[in-house]
Design brief:
8-stranded parallel sheet; single chain; 47% helix; globular; Glucose Oxidase, domain 1; TIM Barrel; 590 residues
Length: 590
């Protein structure tokens, strides 16, 4: 019987394959009372399962392939920390000692307690973290029952022998643990469907990193889809079609073929210079999170790194921050991998959706209550930790001796912050001079992410060598929209006249001052905005490496002056709403 399920499209593309069902994260366990004399033995079983899972996760992390996304290692760190969290360990021990529950029952009971606490949270992103606790507990239960096999070794065999080895498979689960995504990448799975999750969930993040079609939040998917059903995953529309008709199946197979042909065609543009029809040369740069991502940037045809997000070096380290030498080696590796092309390294931007280690539910509640998006994050946190900040600056400066490096400062809003930052850089330089360590006098840039910075551009341009527009946060703060909150996601609008007016103003003022300006947010990688940004005067775009080919195609087909009259009309008239709508329509017509 054919039917459809609707969920959230979190990773684009089409996958077609036979369903492989993975059991729910709530593993069935035996429930029985133990004798007092068995308490120590049950606690030992609990400890042994924890140690077995810790070894398993550590081994998976150690054996990560070089091309594994940076997020995957970070997610494994999260699970290792949860595994050793006292909130889980001590409370589970309590169930064994006081209630005489067997170890499996005790672990499941504590999971229920933690799950209720996560469910009571108001923040969608934090509620989704419940899945991480569930996945850790699941692995411990498996360790107790079967010696900690991986998820793929537990998969049921095909029900009717209709699944040949060369036929694509689609994984269907209540949720998929980040650790199991390693197996997912190395296997024949073409896509996946989960019952739960949102656009900020770990499975969604990893899916986008691996470029795998995925639909999350399909609710009853794992209960209504059966083993070996033929499944179509439409990662563009958030649609799952089970046992499609021949006509529908052929339509999606045609879309797959067209997508592959388009991918091959675009790949031929890798070495083609990005020049518009009217001869304007455009710089297409890559955003990276870890040094290993630099090779993907080079392979995609990037002419440099426009944004190296260094916070991923700081996250999920059980409270221990990376030292200067460790950071230096990471930055140097990225610089060397780019073969002389420029690398813009942003100082650490933690807070909001990128917190440092949060070990317990209480800490998560505390972080949520403080409204982290408006709290001590990015440059504010760095300036509050001057020793750490100068340590990072020294590491970045030292890497400049091995290639062209720029230093970028996130979330500036006050001139006082800018002066403090420049003073910290000067102090770091002097320390390197005193230590006899080589460095180059790098360019220093300001990240424009809050409206306050966009509105005081002349002051910032006098202090900095270049600016970079972080459109994701700029849109969020301009419209007062939490981009991770699905209840207001429909109001997150990059076409809002206020947003476009701020972006146009930043680009215009930077160019007038003779300072470099780039866009490194999602707008840079969105083809709908390419010609609009060109008309505003932008000549430097930075995006995920996978987006470079399609944006380059748009640049090659664009005339940088075509939309200039509409841009001028939109922001020089009294009716900015109508002007921006006309600009949007003209951009869509191409």
């Amino acid at each position: 019987m054919s039917f459809q399920l609707f969920g959230l499209p979190v990773s684009q593309g089409v996958a077609i394959g036979r369903a492989v069902m993975v059991s729910s994260s709530r593993v069935d366990v035996a429930h029985y009372f133990i004798r007092e004399s068995d308490v120590d033995a049950e606690i030992e079983r609990l400890r042994s399962s924890r140690d077995a899972v810790a070894t398993e996760l550590s081994t998976l992390q150690r054996d990560l392939p070089d091309d594994a996304p940076a997020e995957l290692s970070a997610l494994l760190d999260v699970h290792l920390m949860l595994l050793h969290d006292e909130t889980l360990a001590l409370a589970t021990k309590h169930w064994i000692e006081d209630r005489r529950y067997n170890a499996e029952w005790a672990l499941s009971a504590q999971l229920e307690v933690l799950a209720r606490q996560f469910d009571d949270m108001d923040d969608d992103y934090l509620r989704e973290r419940k899945a991480d606790v569930e996945q850790v507990v699941e692995r411990m239960l498996r360790a107790m029952a079967r010696g900690s096999p991986s998820v793929l070794t537990d998969l049921p065999p095909p029900t009717n022998g209709a699944m040949p080895h060369n036929e694509p498979l689609v994984m269907v689960a209540n949720d998929i643990a980040p650790a199991d995504m390693l197996h997912f990448k190395r296997s024949v799975f073409a896509g996946f469907v989960t019952d739960v999750g949102g656009k900020t969930s770990h499975t969604a993040i990893v899916a986008r990193s691996l470029d795998i079609p995925a639909v999350v939040g399909a609710r009853e998917g794992s209960r209504v889809i059966r083993q070996d059903d033929l499944v179509v995953v439409d990662g563009d529309a958030g649609l799952v079609i089970v046992n499609p008709s021949d006509i529908v199946l052929e339509e999606y197979r045609f879309r797959q073929r067209q997508s592959e042909l388009e991918r091959q065609r675009l790949s031929r543009l890798r070495h083609t210079p990005a020049v518009t029809l009217d001869g304007e040369r455009v710089e297409l740069l890559a955003n990276i999170e870890m040094p290993g991502d630099a090779s993907a940037a080079v392979a995609a045809g990037a002419v440099g790194v426009g944004l190296f997000r260094t916070e991923f070096l700081f996250m999920n380290r059980a409270g221990e921050l990376p030292g200067e030498d460790e950071q230096f080696e990471a930055y140097r590796a990225a610089v060397l991998a780019m073969n002389g092309m420029p690398v813009t390294i942003r100082t650490v931007d933690v807070g909001a959706d990128k917190p440092l280690d949060r070990m317990s539910v209480n800490e998560l509640r505390h972080e949520h209550a403080l409204n982290p998006a408006l709290g001590l994050r990015a440059i504010r946190w760095s300036l509050s930790e001057p020793a750490m900040f100068r340590q990072q600056i020294r590491a970045i400066l030292r890497a400049s001796a091995f290639g062209k490096v720029k230093l970028l400062v996130p979330m500036l809003a006050h001139v006082g912050e800018a002066m403090q930052t420049l003073d910290a850089i000067a102090r770091a330089k002097q320390q390197l001079v005193d230590a006899g360590k080589p460095f180059v006098d790098v360019e220093v840039g300001a990240m424009i992410e809050v409206p306050a910075a966009a509105l005081v551009m002349p002051s910032l341009l006098r202090l900095f060598d270049f600016v970079s527009l972080g459109t994701n946060d700029l849109i969020q703060y301009t419209l007062a929209i939490d981009r991770g909150d699905e209840s207001v996601a429909h109001l997150y609008d990059p076409w809002h006249p206020a947003v476009l007016k701020l972006i146009e103003g930043v680009i215009r003022q930077a160019r007038a001052a003779g300072k470099g300006v780039s866009v490194c947010g999602e707008m840079a990688g969105d083809p709908a905005f390419t010609e609009v940004l060109l008309a505003m005067g932008l000549r430097s775009f930075s995006m995920h490496p996978s987006q470079i080919a399609s944006i380059k195609q748009n640049v090659l087909l664009a005339h940088s002056q075509r939309l200039v009259p509409l841009v001028d009309a939109a922001f020089r008239s009294d009716d900015v709403w109508t002007g921006c709508e006309r600009l949007r329509e003209a951009a869509a017509r191409g």
